[in-house]
Amino acid sequence: MITLKEHIGVVLSPSDQEFDKFGSAFGCVLHEERESTWCLYYTGSIDKSWSNASIGVATSKDGVNFAKYPSNPILSMGKQSVTPAIFRASNDYWMVFALEPVMGHGRRLGIAVASNAFGPWTFVKQLIQPDKPWEGDSIDVGPSIVPVDDDYLVFYSNVEGGFFSRHIFGQKSIRRRMGILKLKVSNGREIQFRRWEGNPLSHLNGERGSWNESLFCPGYFRLHETHYLLPTGSIYSVGHPYKQYIGIVEDSSPTFEHPFSVRLLIDGPKEKNKILPTARSEIALDTPCPLMRQNELWLYYAVMDRADGIWKTALSIFLVD
To answer: CA 92 to CA 139: how far, in whole Å?
Structure first.
């Protein structure tokens, strides 16, 4: 059983640095056990419209109080480099992220590599760009990379519908869904990848008007023999300001083909004043990144008050029995 212990609230906010002056969110947390250090890789924006976004890192000794790396950003490509997901393989650090080389041309997924947690990061290659009907014209990546046998599973999601749904039916028609990309990493820094044949994971989406109408950018953790997927949920069909949530899916498989539970974990509209006490409108949620600490689930996620449009990183702690 997973129950809420405490909403800690915001643990990372925008700074005076130009690259993250209007946003510090969409992050991935990596715990370096040897140094007892938490590294929070996050996305920074120079303005509210996210016309130029890059990736930075912040560190902490307790998982709550973070200090930003003085040489940020650590990765900047094109107009947008966003939603980093970090994993270790072949004695290297790898980062899967979404990038938009030219503004307005849609995000695709790329991968970079470094020999240590702070870089320098070297771009390796583009992985996939949206070319499946369900992917629309832009995709993002969730914050968790999952090792399974010889593969690494990358959970990604469409950002919006394609041209037809966006321009004919408008924003209310958006139905975000999730897919899986499988990676193989060799000792020579060679990357092989393929989309999972079961894409998209539409069976996890709910009916129109339900909290899981749209699902995107999920985190992942495993406890004993159970796999947990933590997607962000949104009800776009009711219009702005959109109501958003974080859910939890349980399955015996990391591909979540036959889940035995799909339920709410964080109810954004009901819990917004505890998560973001200063919120004047509905809160937006995104990229839940889980980290297990003994019998506690520490969940980092992006949060934004729709009244001011500034993205930050928040933390909530859950007890796991």
So the answer is: 25
Confidence bin at 168 (pLDDT 50/70/90):
very low
Q: What is the pTM of this model?
A: 0.94
CATH number of residue 210's parent domain: 2.115.10.20
Three-state SS letters, 55-75? EEEEEECCCCCCEECCCCCCE
* Selection from 14, 100, 30, 1 nearest residue 302 by Cα: 14
Q: What pLDDT digit, counting tens, does each position of 283-308 carry?
A: 999 999 999 998 999 999 999 999 99
92 touches 113 (CB < 8 A): yes
What spatial distance separates the first Cα and last Cα of the chain, rounded to whole Å? Answer: 5
Domain count within the chain = 1
pLDDT in tens, 200-228: 999 999 999 999 999 999 999 999 999 99
3-state DSSP: the chain helix, strand, coil percent, rounded to 5?
10, 55, 35
- Percentage of the chain lying above the pLDDT 90 cut: 83
Give CA–CA dist 137/133, Å, rounded.
Answer: 9
Q: How many CB atoms lie within 10 A of CB 91?
A: 7
Decide if 260 contacts 274 (C-beta within 8 A). no
Q: How many CB atoms lie within 10 A of CB 182?
A: 17
Q: Which strand ranges, in their side-by-side order, compose the sheet holding 139-148?
A: 139-148, 151-158, 178-185, 191-195
**How open is the CA angle 63-279-23, to the nearest 5 degrees?**
55
Domain extent, residue 272, equals 2-320
And the tokens for 194?
């393929």
Residue 269's H or E segment, with its range, is helix 268-275
